[in-house]
Specification:
9 strands, Rossmann fold, binds hypoxanthine, alpha/beta
Amino acid sequence: MLQKIQETKAFLESKTNISPFVGIVLGTGLGNLSTEIEIETAIPYTDIPNFPVSTVEGHSGQLVFGTINDVPVVAMQGRFHYYEGYSLQECTFPIRVMKALGITNLFLSNASGGVNADFEIGDIMLITDHINLLPDNPLRGKNIDELGPRFPDMSEPYDIDLRNQVINIASENNIKIQQGIYAVLSGPTFETPAEYKYIQIIGADTVGMSTVPEVIVARHMNLPCMAMSIITDLGVDGKIVEISHEEVQEVAKAAEPKMTLIIKKLLAKIYASETV
Ligand code: HPA
């Protein structure tokens, strides 16, 4: 794996002059952040050695290098999900590569189903913690000591300073933001009513099909993470209705401007504080 990371890193460095400060996984809800990136180079995943190829509708699948208000970033436009058939090592390979390229923070977004009765469709939830209910862990197998420890600490999976900054930014901009725990299941099925109830009973606030593997791998490498989720449907007793991927995308689209604004402000703040 180390060799593959180096090979992919070398390839990408031959295509771009950007040294990215932050890596961003443009999941559902951050689609339009890509329009805010002054793009220097965009490379389709299919052209990148050792990258898997994205298949899901709504994810175009390219790695974008550029700047947002002069802050150098690398952004994944489209991510890899376990339900697509990739191993978790494959799903998280791009995170390894972005770290090798020098990113100091990782921002992620996703869509999820809310199981907290206080949540409303369209809410943004700052992820404070997660529960991995996938039948695997991306770190299973021989540990690569050069990348991180065998038994990584998970006491603060989502960086507290980044979270506090997001809360401040939301409040300064009159954006309602929920906070809570994200549970991940493999999908591709949405949950049954009994499964939503189970998710709620075990202590989560939302459920989705992504993000957790990427955060585990990032934490393995001691990379600080910030993730936000758009509540696109509710798995709450009495509020469960039929949902579709299209509806999820539609709700997420409506919440995009708020999430995009938060990310832009956060980027500017941390870049200013880390480059003084
Ligand atoms: N469950 C799982 N994933 C999801 C959901 C959900 O209800 N909504 C959006 N992504």
